[in-house]
Amino acid sequence: MAGAGGARGLREGPGQPVVVRALSLLEQFTERRRALSLSELARLAGLAPATALRLVRHLTEWGALERLEDGRYVVGVRLWEVASLSPRGHGVRQIALPYLEDLYEVTRHHVLLSVREGRDAVLIDRLSSRHATEVAYRVGGRMPLRTTAVGQVLLAYSTPGVLEELLAQPAGAEQRAEQGTEPEAERGAGELPAADLRAVLAGVKQSGAAVVRRTQPSRTVSVAAPIYSAGGEVLAALSIVVPDAVTPAHELVPLVRAAARAISRSLGHQPTASGAWRHPSREAGALPA
């Protein structure tokens, strides 16, 4: 990367910047494509083989990629080191982890912590029992906003522009196997029409929690609640996923909300005397969103 940038600047001729081409190579790796050959990388990224080879060499030297014995490439550990510095990833996770562990001890199934990234939710931590019901979510994986509990929480508290942009997508867009999204996680929970989704999100804001049931890959119920930063923004969503019909959802909601509020307090967010959540100024030490 440094070599390419130092030799030719950020652009190579009239095409895309070098950094964009390099990132286009990295984004070809997904849950189902963990190891790729040079020719596969070039084809998927739409790059000339010579260009792909040069960039892959730089990425490998820097540590963003690692070369296997069979010649294929995988994502390097160096990227994980850099990603762990994200305040919306490791920073939130570090503060929330003790509360996630407490919630896990009570439920003994799945406890999820997610943040919004663009049109998806990204799972930044998951605690699960060996005997927990099957789910399709993995740490670092993407989850749809419309059809998951954490997604509905993050969407309900997002800016109006984010919601309108998502609703403008063609029907069923979130249920397609888009790159980097976990398609299995989307089955069993159909997309709601725009009007119905707005009503659901209004209910999420009123109750402070989202409840979503699904049938695949197993019958589960997910309950999620928002986590606030010191500045009053919804920074993340906390969720538990348990087998459906084992515990009534209305009994799970107070449990998840209480844990999310405890995490919010640890992040510097304070309730008012009446119990409502206040939104102090950013000078109060808000964690960068």
TrEMBL record:
Q: Which residues cross the membrane?
A: none
Keyword annotations for this protein, in alphabetical order, are: DNA-binding, Transcription, Transcription regulation
Domain named HTH iclR-type is located at: 16-77
The reply to whether Transcription regulation figures as a keyword in the UniProt entry is: yes
Where are the stretches annotated Disordered? 171-190, 268-289
Q: Which InterPro entries match?
A: GAF-like_dom_sf, HTH_MetabolicPath_Reg, Tscrpt_reg_IclR_C, Tscrpt_reg_IclR_N, WH-like_DNA-bd_sf, WH_DNA-bd_sf
Q: A Pfam family this protein belongs to?
A: IclR_C
Q: Where is the composition biased (Basic and acidic residues)?
A: 175-189
Q: What PROSITE patterns does UniProt report for this protein, alphabetically?
A: HTH_ICLR, ICLR_ED
Q: Does the keyword rRNA processing apply?
A: no
Q: Which GO terms describe its molecular function?
A: DNA binding
Q: Using the record's annotation, list all stretches that form the IclR-ED domain.
A: 78-269
Q: Which superkingdom does the taxonomy of this entry point to?
A: Bacteria
PANTHER family (UniProt xref): HELIX-TURN-HELIX TRANSCRIPTIONAL REGULATOR, ICLR FAMILY, HTH-TYPE TRANSCRIPTIONAL REPRESSOR ALLR
Protein name (database record): DNA-binding IclR family transcriptional regulator
